[in-house]
Specification:
Radius of gyration: 28 Å
Number of strands: 0
Keywords: Membrane, Transmembrane, Transmembrane helix
Distance between the termini: 15 Å
Strand content: under 5%
Structural class: mainly alpha
Largest sheet: none
Protein name: LigA
Oligomer: single chain
Number of domains: 1
Number of helices: 4
Length: 162
């Protein structure tokens, strides 16, 4: 049997090829879901960035990168969190919150540093989730177009079948 005959032959029992409508529907839904994911991802990214900018945090001069820049994205937030950790370790003599005695005056500083770092890392994760949503949205659109192409091939094979 030739390759062309395999592509256009009806399934067993001689029934006509069906399913193009369902495949097309899945394709359209995939494209719409992809667009929605991209929009939601962009909105989330913008919202987290705006909230960080509203805090008016500036990366200190002793940071490993982005010194003097405003914290507004995942990289500046991460660098700021690491710089806070460095300062907290300097203030505590290299001890973590758990290692400090309850009457150590550096304990409050290290605790606040820990809270600030957690908040900054939460924003870094939020940027990651937003980027993931955008990436999945792009994939959903690509799969949606692939499903539309398959639906067209099914229709074409139905027309070409004897």
């Amino acid at each position: 049997m030739s390759e062309e005959a395999i592509d256009t032959a009806p399934p067993r029992g001689g029934a006509p090829v069906r399913g193009a409508g369902a495949v097309k529907t899945i394709g359209v839904l995939g494209i719409l879901a992809g667009i929605l994911l991209i929009v939601v991802g962009i909105v989330a990214w913008a919202a987290v960035s705006a909230e960080l900018r509203a805090e008016k945090i500036t990366v200190p001069d002793d940071a490993v990168a982005f010194a003097g820049q405003q914290v507004s994205g995942p990289l500046t937030a991460y660098v700021q969190a690491e710089t806070i950790q460095k300062h907290a370790m300097e203030a505590s003599g290299g001890k973590t919150y758990a290692e400090l005695s309850s009457d150590d005056p550096a304990r409050a500083t290290v605790m606040n540093a820990s809270f600030l770092r957690a908040s900054l890392f939460t924003s870094v994760v939020s940027f990651g989730v937003a980027a993931f949503a955008i990436g999945v949205g792009i994939l959903a659109i690509l799969f949606g177009f692939a499903f539309l192409k398959v639906a067209g091939a099914i229709r074409a094979s139905r027309v070409a079948a004897p």
